[in-house]
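Data card: per-record layout.
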Amino acid sequence: RVAVVGAGVSGLAAIKCCLDEGLEPVCFEQSQDIGGLWRYTEHIEAGRPSLYPSVISNTSKEMSAFSDFPFPEHFPVFLPNALLLDYLRRYAEHFNLREHIRFGTKVVSIRKHPDFAVTEQWSVVTETGGKQTLHICDAVMVCSGNFSEPSLPLQSFPGIERFRGQYFHSRQYKHPDVFQGKRVLVVGMGNSGVDIAVEASRVAAKVTISTTRGAWLLSRVFEHGYPWDMILNTRFMSLIKTNLPAPLSWWLINYKANRWFNHENYGLQPEKSWLVREPLLNDDLPSYILTGRITIKPGVKEFKDNSVLFHNCPEEEPIDIVVFCTGYIVSFPFLEESEVRVENKHASLYKYVFPTHLQKPTLAVLGLIRPFGAIMPVAEMQARWVTRVFKGLCQLPPQSVMEKEVNEKKKNQLQWFGLTFDEVLKTEWLVYLDTLASFIGAKPSVLGLLFTDPWLALTIFFGPCSPYQFRLGGPGRWVGARQAILTQWDRVLKPTRTRAPAASSSPFPSLLIVVGFLLLLAAVVFSF
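The structure for this 528-residue chain is written out next.
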């Protein structure tokens, strides 16, 4: 019996994977519906993520799908939050997941059972309608997300206590009306910060973004009009990024990011451009900077009564409202600190999933990761791995080995991604998926396919690494995986090609078939 905490993206994947492995999941969801982050509510609910109604997914539908459940072909390529929630509801209905969810049930505490050394069980206390209930479970999957507790480090902003204007964390933002005719300062340059700045600039008198480090900016509409992640997140591109010498890799990233526009000219160039930072996704920011709607400034030095002073800028900037887009705190209020250690806002977990100090791996955390790609396939792959670990079909390394890797990962992330609020959670999307897939025997063999199904091999190596690749073989094999891969571009073009007659849907020139075959032969020899 497996307790699943939360019925968002990770929780639904956890329930489904438990059922696939013959386990008995019981999911506790404190709200009255599924969806987690993607279920919009007008009012902010304690302990739940909060999003604004205009949120659109940053990853395309083909790259965001659960690996055995493609999005409907008529859905747009990038999804408004309401349609993404609709997809999650379809998923839950298709696999009969709702019957395993207890809504309106809050998890109060999760503790080791008194006989844990023998039974390896957990005592889970929940509360429904003011009444507490004890559940004894054999394993726990924590799927509560990390967008519920805002990080608002006011102590890092001198003078904020005397600022007479209004300020709030981005979690409280819903509609741009609050900015009408105001001078707005957005502190922080994550995806939410840029989104809010763009929306505010349509009604505000002036909008300024303050960023200490800058950022690379990508558009959802990438080369030749195709979705960015279907062009960048390929096995071929991953092979290049992970095998090129560091200076050459950094140059390639600079080149790719600056092909849209020169970041330095727009005040966005990362402070240390050789550090690879998570790119932001926004289609409007460059034009809004170009038309004067938004101004980019350095980090905040000090707040005054009705203004702000920036580093390296002698003049004060008058402001009325400050929006702090400063991220979130990782916390598990229902767990004892000894179970999942959180240090410097980060949980020390092997492969971002398992605590390293437990005698038996019967507690796992899902979705606590920031991949350079869609989170849904990652959470699903974590769930597939975790459930097989619970069953004893996959083994974890010794504790010392896991702890060493966790510590090394932290050091490497600081060097590779730079120091940010959530640097330790960031990872290379495809490399991580392949690693977990290899644990359960679901990583596709490009070399093997080259001899048995060469067209499919070329497609999965040079084309998008869509999640269906991880259902071609191994446990959980899906008979529709091959067809889903070969028709992925049809589903991308279906909602956009609404006037033009049908034509070839492949974005790759036919010459690539010949050249690609030769390159693939060389690639598999040296990398597989």
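Known properties of this structure: The longest strand covers residues 106-112. Residues 116 and 122 are 7 Å apart (CA to CA).

See the next section for split statistics.
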